[in-house]
Structures are given as C-alpha cells and as structure tokens.
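Quick one:
INPUT:
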C-alpha cells in the first residue's frame, strides 16, 4: 500500500497539514493561557488591594472610635471621679458616658459591647453585662496589652462569642490623665465580625474563586469551607505568614490552587482570594477544542483534495509503468503516446528514445557475437597445444625442485642438530668451569676450616688451663674461709669470757662502794664492747656461712665446666680429623675436574669446525632448492597463464552464447 506514489502524496500532505494545524492550536492555547494568567494576576492583585482597603477602612473606623473615646473628657472625668471616690463608689459622670455609648451602638449594630475598666478595678459596660462580684478588669489580657502600649490602639486575637456563635474581636486603648500623664484605665469595645464577613463575602471573585480572611494564628475567620479551622498546617500558609503581600501556588485534594493575599494594617491578618487554576483556563481549553475541531475538518478536506490531485498525477505514471514492464519482459516494439508537456510528458518522450536506442544496440551486438565465436574457437585450439608442452616441462622441473628441497631440508635439520649439539657442549663447558671454580672455593673453605680448628684447639687448651687455675683458687678460698671460721670462733669465745669478766668486775666494784665506781664504769664499757664484739662475730659468722654455701655451689659448677671442657676437647679432635679427610677428598676431586675441563675444551674446539662445515652445506642446498623452485614456479606460472587464457576463451565463448540467447528474448 505504501509503495504507491498516490498513497505517499496523500499521507505526506495529510501529515504536514496535521502538524501545522496542531502546532497552531497549541500555540493559540498557550498564548491565551498566558494572557489569562497575566489578566488574573493583575486583576487579583487589584482586587486584593481594594478588599484590603475596604477592610482596613472598616476596622480603622472602630479603632478611631476607641481612640476618640480614650481622649473623651467625659470618660476621663468619670475615671478621675472613680479614683477620688473609690470607697464611696459615687459616679455621677457614668450616665452621660453610657448614653453616648448607647447612641453609638444603635448606629453600629456590629458592636457587641462598649466598656471602661478603671485602674481601681471598677468596670462598666454598655449594655450591662452580669459579671462576678470579684471581677478584676486589670487582670484581663486586653487590659495588660493596652497598658503595655499606651500610645497605640490594641486589637486582640478573634474569639467566638458564646451567645451568638460568631467571631468577635476586642479593640482597646489606654485612657491617660492629660494633666499628669498617668494611666486612669482602659476603654474598648467588642466588635462582631459579621459586618466584616459580609464585606468580604460580597466581593465578587471571577472564575469561581472566593475571598478569605485569616488571623495571625492561622485561624480562618472568613472562608467558604474552612471557617473556624486552623490553616497554619496548610502548605500555603508558611508563605502567607512570612510575606506582607504576594501570590502562591499549592495543591489541595489533588487540585492546583493559586492564592493572592495582602496584610491588614490594623491587625496583621491576611486577606485575599483563592482560585482553582483549572477554572482559570476553562475558556482557553474550550477555544483550543474548537480550534482542534476546525483543524480536523480542514485536514479531512485537505486529504480529499490531495487524493484527487495525487490520482491525476499518478495515472500517467501508472500507464508508463505498464509500458516499462513490457520492455523489461523483452518487448522493444512498444511506444507510449505523449498527451502532456510537463515533466511526466518529458519522461515519456525520453522513454521512447531509450527503447529505440536499445533496439539498435541489440542488433549491433548480435552481429558482433558471431565474429567473437569464430575467433574464440581458433584461440582455444592453440592454447590446448601450448598447455600440453608446458606441462611436460613443468613435471621434469618439479622433480628436480623436490629433490633439491629435500636436500635443503635435510641440511637444515643437520644444521639445527649441530647447533643444538654446540649449545649443549657450550653448556657442558660452562658447567665444567663452574665445577672448577666450586672445587677451588671448596679447597679454600676447607683450608680455612682447618686453620680455625687449629685455633679452636689452642683456645680449648687455654680454656682448660684457666679452668684448672680457677679450681685451685676456689680450693684455696675454701681453706681460707675455714681458717676465718676458726678465728671467728676464737673471737667469740674471747668475747664471752670478756663479758663474764666485766660482769664479775662490776660486782666487785659494787662491793667496793664509792671507791669502786670508776672501775665499775670501765667494767661496764668493757662488757658493752664484749657484747658488740660478740654480735659482730655472729654477723661475720653468718656472712662466712653464706660465702661457704656460694663457694660450694661454685665448686659444683667448676666440676661441670671441667667435664664439658673435656667433652669439647674430644669433639674438636674428631672435627679436625674429619676436616683432614675432607681435604684429601677435595684434592682428588679437583684433579678429576681439571681432567674433565681439558677434554671439554678439546671437544668445544672441534664442534666449532663441524658447525661451520654443516652451515656451508646447508646454505648451498638452500640456494639450489631456491633456484629449482623459482624455475618450477616460472613454469607453473606459464602453464597457469595459458590455462587462464584458455579459460578466458571458454568463458568468452559461453558469454557470447549467453548473450546470443538473451538477445533472442528481445522482440525487435
């Protein structure tokens, strides 16, 4: 289906029309959407400003009223009178003030109550409100807020009135004594927000939008569906809270909303309007749908017109296509009639010329084929005779080439083995050199071992002498210690006898009385010296006993040392005998290795001559084989060339025959 030019034309034009019309529709839709957005932004900001102005003006009126009351001399006089007559409770000025309050409330129905609170805790309201006896106005939040900002009118947060169920806001102002500038009390009123709600709800918002009012805590004071609810957790409130004016987009229940807002000067509340963005662009969507409908109708009409034009263009092309198919089947007698002078008419004219030229060409080719067939037959006969002669020569040369190649191969194999033998001989020669060097090192090492054994034997003898000397010294030390013990024993006996004599002398001196006191002192001193000598002798005896124990242990160690030295002496002698035997064996091994080295050197000299001769034979054999192969290759190339000529002649003859058969298909 898609191979027909008529179908391609219809599809191409239809696609082009569809893309163009859809593009125009989309551009128009987005342009209208942009324009609507701009208009809504502009009108919403203006509407928000107007609503803010109305609300501010409404609140400002009541704020100004409270401010006026705070400066009213009648209220000031009333509060002064209360302060002066605090204990008597006389208030002659209150009826005048109450009358004024009632007049104002009659004119402004949204005012729920007007009140005055004195610093002396007196509290009056219009109309009268039943309050507890101990009611203290100075403890109320609105009183504290007014006192903290005496120069400002203070608005409290809205709250729901229990009796009406509607939102009420309190506005208060401090009453000051103009003479002393002291606080006298607070005046204020409770304002019902029903009037403010009416103002906001009566504001018309296009595109099914709505107005709202939210206090500083996020409570919806005026809202079509969320009134009284806390909106501070909503996604849009964070931006409203942190900015004085602007707009924000957010999603609620799956629908996109756009909010425009302003901040009230009196209270800081947020006022504005909210739209569903889907409602904003409904008109644009309707227009877009209308454009798409018109575009669809235009595309259908375009397809019909395109089909008619495509059929007009395709019809002569289809007729020409049938004639071309007849030519493709071999009928060169066809001729197409020309009915137009456009590109299709020109194509038809050139097609007729092409058929005439092909008819003339085939007639000429048919004559040439007959001449080619005769020449090909003669050339085939000559080629066959030449091939037979060349094949005989080629077979003889091939036999010579094979013999030369085998000889070269054998020579090359012999050369490889000779080279392998040469490398092995060189490896043996290297190993012999290495063995000679190792034997030399072994001989030198053995000699060094013998020298060290001689030195070890000498040191062992010297060590034995030293051990004997130490043993004799220890024996003498033991005998001296015994002599010291005997001397110490004698000293101990002398000390004991001296102590006894000194005791006897002391007794005799006591008997002598006064004349023997000096002798008694001397005897006491002698006794003390004897005691000290006895103690020192005991210490010496203990020390000698310890030395004696250590000496006995040292004697045992010396006996072990002498035994070990004797064993070491025997081991050194045996090791020296082993080194001497190894020395004799290394000497015999060196002689054998030197003999092997001489034989290997001789073989190494002879192998060089053998390898050189084999390499010469191999080179000559390779040259002979190469020359034979070149002659054989040349002969084979000649035979192949003749075969190629013969094959070409055969192929030419076949092609001529095929061409003759193909020409027969054409009807001239």
């Amino acid at each position: 289906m898609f191979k027909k030019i008529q179908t391609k034309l219809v599809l191409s034009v239809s696609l082009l029309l569809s893309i163009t019309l859809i593009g125009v529709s989309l551009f128009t839709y987005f342009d209208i959407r942009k324009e609507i957005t701009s208009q809504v932004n502009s009108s919403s900001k203006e509407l928000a400003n107007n609503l803010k102005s109305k609300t501010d003006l409404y609140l400002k009126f009541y704020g100004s009223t409270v401010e006026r009351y705070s400066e009213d001399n009648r209220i000031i006089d009333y509060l002064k009178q209360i302060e002066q007559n605090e204990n008597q409770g006389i208030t002659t000025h209150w009826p005048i003030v109450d009358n004024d309050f009632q007049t104002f409330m009659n004119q402004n129905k949204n005012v729920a109550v007007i009140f005055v609170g004195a610093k002396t805790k007196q509290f009056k309201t219009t109309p009268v409100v039943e309050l507890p006896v101990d009611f203290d106005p100075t403890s109320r939040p609105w009183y504290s807020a007014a006192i903290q900002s005496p120069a400002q009118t203070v608005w409290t947060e809205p709250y729901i009135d229990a009796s009406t169920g509607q939102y009420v806001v309190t506005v208060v102002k401090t009453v000051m004594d103009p003479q002393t500038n002291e606080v006298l009390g607070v005046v204020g009123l409770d304002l019902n927000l029903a009037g403010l709600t009416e103002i906001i709800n009566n504001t018309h918002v296009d595109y099914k939008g709505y107005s709202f009012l939210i206090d500083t805590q996020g409570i919806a004071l005026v809202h079509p569906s969320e009134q009284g609810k806390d909106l501070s957790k909503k996604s849009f409130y964070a931006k409203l809270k942190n900015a004085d004016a602007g707009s924000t987009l957010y999603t609620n229940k799956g629908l996109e909303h756009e909010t425009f807002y302003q901040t009230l000067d009196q209270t800081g509340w947020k006022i504005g309007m909210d739209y569903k963005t889907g409602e904003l662009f409904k008109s644009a969507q309707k227009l877009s749908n209308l454009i798409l409908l018109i575009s669809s109708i235009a595309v259908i009409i375009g397809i019909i017109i395109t089909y008619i034009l495509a059929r007009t263009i395709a019809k002569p092309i289809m007729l020409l296509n049938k004639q071309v198919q007849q030519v493709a089947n071999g009928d060169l007698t066809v001729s197409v009639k020309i009915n137009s002078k456009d590109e299709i008419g020109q194509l038809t004219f050139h097609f007729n010329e092409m058929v005439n030229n092909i008819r003339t060409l085939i007639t000429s080719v048919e004559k040439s084929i007959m001449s080619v067939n005769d020449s090909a037959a003669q050339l085939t006969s000559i080629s066959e005779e030449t091939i037979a002669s060349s094949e005989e020569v080629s077979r003889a040369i091939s036999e010579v080439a094979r013999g030369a190649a085998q000889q070269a191969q054998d020579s090359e194999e012999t050369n490889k083995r000779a080279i392998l033998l040469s490398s092995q001989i060189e490896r043996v020669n290297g190993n012999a050199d290495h063995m000679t060097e190792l034997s030399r090192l072994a001989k030198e090492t053995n000699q060094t071992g013998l020298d060290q054994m001689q030195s070890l034997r000498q040191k062992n003898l010297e060590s034995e002498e030293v051990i004997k000397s130490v043993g004799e010294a220890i024996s003498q030390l033991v005998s001296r210690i015994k002599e010291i013990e005997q001397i110490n024993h004698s000293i101990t006996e002398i000390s004991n006898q001296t102590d006894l004599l000194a005791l006897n002398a002391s007794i005799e001196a006591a008997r002598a009385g006064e004349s023997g006191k000096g002798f008694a002192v001397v005897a006491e001193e002698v006794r003390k010296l004897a005691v000290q000598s006895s103690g020192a002798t005991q210490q010496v005896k203990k020390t000698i006993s310890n030395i004696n124990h250590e000496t006995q242990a040292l004697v045992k160690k010396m006996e072990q040392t002498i035994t070990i030295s004797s064993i070491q002496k025997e081991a050194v002698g045996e090791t020296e005998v082993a080194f001497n035997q190894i020395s004799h064996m290394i000497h015999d091994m060196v002689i054998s290795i030197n003999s092997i080295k001489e034989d290997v050197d001789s073989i190494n000299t002879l192998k060089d001559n053998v390898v050189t001769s084999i390499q010469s034979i191999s080179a000559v054999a390779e040259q002979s084989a190469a020359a034979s192969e070149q002659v054989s290759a040349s002969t084979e190339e000649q035979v192949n060339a003749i075969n190629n000529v013969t094959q070409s002649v055969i192929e030419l003859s076949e092609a001529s025959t095929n061409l003759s058969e193909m020409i027969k298909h054409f009807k001239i």
